[in-house]
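tool=predict chain=A
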Amino acid sequence: MQPMPPRLPSLHLRGSLRRYLWPYDYFRDVTRGTPFEQEQNYRHNRQMGACLPAFIRRWAFLTLVFFGIGTLLEELLQLVLPAACCYVTGTWTLTIVIQLVVAWLWLKRFPRLHER
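tool=predict ok
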């Protein structure tokens, strides 16, 4: 039996960072499968919805960081183009925050996807 090759640190760090920041991998598609499978997937998503506030905090922090760095670059260092890049990235992170808040509110408000 051959030993497993060692994992590269960059791949391990990238995977950990993805699991730490990317919540979409934890949820299932509720539009596929039989009605029973769809109901099970929705139930799973409702259970995983308890993790969404942590992801919302992480992405909100990233939003503040990018807007803060953009402000620092623009006001103190007079670097307009890097500041604009930070503002655009901050806007992207803000859209993810909004998506996560809407998903969390949806999962809290509607306990059943398909009423029988």
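The helical segments are 9-21, 35-48, 52-75, 80-109. The longest helix spans residues 80-109.
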